[in-house]
Design goal:
single chain; mainly beta; 2 domains
Length: about 90
């Protein structure tokens, strides 16, 4: 795997204030980010910390994610409930 196209921009969790929809993306100063479905402006709410000890820039590794039975969103295995719909983990 090469890192030719890897970004050096910091990665942030972005949130639309009205709907609460979130995205994770590299952020550049002076650029306005919008939700692709609703058109709302996304605001940076937190910096994403990389997993230590690995060369990956992913906020979470796919091994540590599970698919929610109700909303079918990827959610971390270490959470007791789905962060999107609140369904308890099985």
């Amino acid at each position: 795997m090469t890192t030719e196209n890897a970004t050096t921009d910091p990665i942030y969790r972005l949130r639309a204030p009205a709907s609460g929809r979130e995205a994770i993306a590299p952020v550049r100063d002076g650029v306005v980010y919008r939700d692709a479905e609703t058109g709302e402006e996304l605001e940076p709410v937190a910096a994403v910390l990389p997993v230590t000890g690995e060369g990956s820039s992913l906020p979470r590794t796919p091994v540590n994610l599970r698919v929610c039975r109700r909303c079918e969103q990827l959610t971390p295995r270490d959470l007791a409930t789905c962060e999107f719909c609140g369904l308890p983990a099985a």
